[in-house]
Structures are given as C-alpha cells and as structure tokens.
Write a structure and sequence with these properties.
Layout: H1 9-36, H2 41-49, H3 68-81, H4 83-103, H5 106-117, E1 122-126, E2 142-146, E3 149-160, E4 167-178, E5 184-192, E6 198-203, E7 214-225, E8 229-230, H6 236-272, E9 274-275, E10 278-279, H7 284-312, H8 318-343, H9 353-361, H10 371-383
Parallel strand pairs: 1-4
Antiparallel strand pairs: 2-3, 3-7, 4-5, 5-8, 6-7, 9-10
Helix pairs in contact: 1-3, 3-4, 3-6, 3-7, 4-5, 4-6, 6-7, 6-8, 6-9, 7-8, 8-9, 8-10
C-alpha cells in the first residue's frame, strides 16, 4: 500500500495553464475590475476557450473529461488572480453544472449542461431568500402546476452570476407541497432568464467582490415548462445540499488562491521595504507572520485536494469538504490581515493589492455555508 501526493501530469498542466492565465491576463485587470465593477466578459470568454468551465464533465456534454481535483486546482489559480472569477467557476461548474449533470434528464443535459460546460452560457444558483439564509428549509418561494407549466412566485437574493449578460438560467428551489407533519416539500427547477415573469431586480452594492454579478431575483407568476423540473420533486433541497458539498471544496480552493496572493504580496513587500536600515523581512516578527501564512496555506491546500480526491473516488467526503471550507475561510481572513499589517499604512491604501484582498476575504466565511453552519455539520458528524 502506498500514498502518493504527487499531482499527475494532467493536473500539473491545468495548474500551469491556470496560473499563467491568472498572472498574465487576470492580475493586470483585477484592480480596475474591483474599482469599476465592470464584468470582464472578455476574460470569461478566454476562460471558456481554455475549457475551464467544463473540466470535470464528460466530453459528450461539452467538458474535457477531467476530474474534480483538476477543477479545484484551476479554481485556486484563477482565484489567485481574482476571487470573483474563481467564484464564477464555483457557481457555474461546481454547483449548477454538477446539479444538472447528476440529477438532470438526458434532454436537460443536452440543452443546459453542454453550453455551461463549454462556457458559452453561465448558470446561477437561486436558493437564498430574504427570510431564509442559513435556514434553507424556511423557503417561501412556491411553485404550483398549472396545466403543462409550473408557475413560480417568490424572491431570491444574493444570487451570483445571474446579472451577467451571458447568464442563461438559474436553478431555483421552491416549495411545491406539504408532506408529513406539514413539512415543506422542496423541488428544484431550471428557470430560464427569459422566462415570462422572471425579473432581474436590484444589483447589490457590496464592499468587495464588485466584479461579481450579484442580484436579487423576483419571480411573479413565472412560467416554465413542466419538463424544467430538475431531479426528484421530493428531494430538491437534498439535491441542492449535495452539490453545495462540492461548493464547499471550491470555496476552500478560492480561499487558498486568495491567501497565496496575500503571501506573495507580503513577501515581496517585506523584501523591498527598508526599516531600521534593513529590509523588514530580516526582522523576526515579520518572518514569523510569513511562516505562519505559508503553513496555513499548505494545510488548507492539502485538505481541499483530499476532499476533491475522495469525491473523484466516489467516497464519502462530507467531513473533509466541511473542514476544508471552514479552516480555509478562516485562514484567509487572517492571512489577509497579516499581509496588510506587514504593509503598515501602505496596506490601507487602495493602490496596494492587499487592501482589496482584505476586503474580499471576509465574504468567504459566509458563502456556501457560514462558519457557524460548518461547525454545526461537524458537530452532527461527531455525534454520530
């Protein structure tokens, strides 16, 4: 029996391709993207040409026949350039694309998964509502059958990607019935953005992630064909939660990419900044901060890779995915804080990347399940 921690040649190629793309194409634009809030359609198109959205899907559905380890290596490197583009891959591939691939009919895969895997269209995931954030079972959005159509009514908020011009659809969770004891039956639906009654509402004014399209959705008698029901009508929430498990791995990869960018910037600055006659890197206090960052990043990277590897092997990975997301999201906030501290007053200036990294880090403890929810999940696992 042996344990092999080496990446395969295909994984190395993905890493180098994504790293070069992030460094040469994304990084020079990242500050402008954040300051202007402009969506980088040309960069997204180039990512699609490189096959980034379809890495884990079979070629017959527009993918490249890769695996989830490769997908998450790509997400890490893209996030090193800009977290909003790493998050785009999380939502459209790890969550939306995967839910259609796993639970969709053959017709649904041909119609919706193929263009998503090819990067020609972008998907969104509409679960959160004004009164149901972490409590996803408290959904109020409803769907009723009317002839050959489903009619949806409700509001969804904080929906990533849907504001992009090339976003074609959202996977929407809605209450369709009441089961035993009055418990809500939740189903999921593929809702085209151009469906009657689908309204793209306000764009959120965020403190960071400004190049990420985040909007509210209002569904007013929104009509979709009955064929747009996705998967088991009685297990819509379970389907959502299943793919969000992969989303947690993806967010861990985003965290590692951002934390690595923090370390890169802090190390470069520490070697250049002179204080008391020497580079501040020579001071032990600075070296300790950088050493701690490097250790935490490596541990986080190993954990998300393990979770992705287990997924590829078809093995249970709830514990690994949850710990990866929890640890990495809290790690990156400290890494960003330490990177800013090393820069001193300069770090608080917008002209230095670490100010952007610091603003962007906090959200990673909230998306794809808050740190508190991750601890609840781990508590249940420990309880047996």
């Amino acid at each position: 029996m042996s344990v092999d921690f080496d990446l395969g040649e295909e994984h190395k190629m993905i890493r180098e391709m994504a790293r070069d793309f992030a460094e040469e194409v994304i990084r020079p634009r990242s500050e402008h993207m954040e300051a202007s809030g402009e969506y980088p359609y040309d960069i997204i198109a180039q990512m699609a040409e490189l096959g980034m959205m379809g890495i884990p899907f079979p070629e017959e559905y527009g993918g490249s026949g890769g695996d989830w380890v490769g997908m998450h290596i790509c997400i890490e490197q893209i996030s090193r350039g800009d977290v909003t583009l790493g998050a785009l891959l999380d939502v459209t591939t790890s969550v939306v694309g995967q839910e259609i691939f796993v639970f969709g009919t053959e017709e649904q895969k041909r119609r919706w998964l193929v263009p998503i895997a090819q990067g020609k269209e972008i998907g969104a995931f509409a679960l959160t509502e004004p009164d149901s954030g972490s409590d996803s079972g408290a959904l109020r959005c409803r769907a009723v059958m009317d002839g050959s159509e489903w009619v949806l009514n409700g509001t969804k908020q904080f929906i990533t990607n849907i504001g992009l011009d090339n976003a074609s659809m959202a996977i929407v969770a809605a209450v369709t019935d009441k089961g035993e004891g009055g418990k809500k039956v939740i189903s999921t639906f593929i809702v085209p953005k151009d469906a009657p009654g689908f309204k793209l509402s306000k764009k959120y004014n965020k403190m960071g992630w400004r190049a990420s399209a985040t909007h509210e959705i209002i569904l007013e008698d929104c009509r979709i064909p009955k064929e747009n029901l996705l998967g088991d009508p009685n297990r819509g929430l379970a389907q959502h939660l299943a793919v969000l498990e992969t989303g947690r791995i993806s967010i861990a990869a985003v965290c590692v990419g951002l934390a690595q960018a923090c370390l890169d910037e802090a190390l470069r600055y520490a070697k250049e900044r002179i204080q008391f006659g020497v580079p501040i890197f020579n001071h032990q206090a600075i070296q300790f901060k950088l050493a701690d960052m490097a250790v935490a990043i490596e541990l986080s990277r190993n954990q998300y890779l393990k979770a992705a590897w287990l997924k590829d092997k078809g093995r249970k990975h709830t514990f690994e995915a949850t710990t990866a997301k929890l640890y990495a999201s809290e790690m990156v906030e400290k890494a960003a804080s330490d990177a800013l501290q090393i820069h001193g007053g300069y770090g608080y200036m917008n002209e230095y990347p670490v100010s952007r990294y610091y603003r962007n880090a906090k959200l990673l403890q909230i998306v794809e399940g808050t740190s508190e929810v991750q601890r609840m999940i781990l508590g249940r696992i420990l309880a047996g």
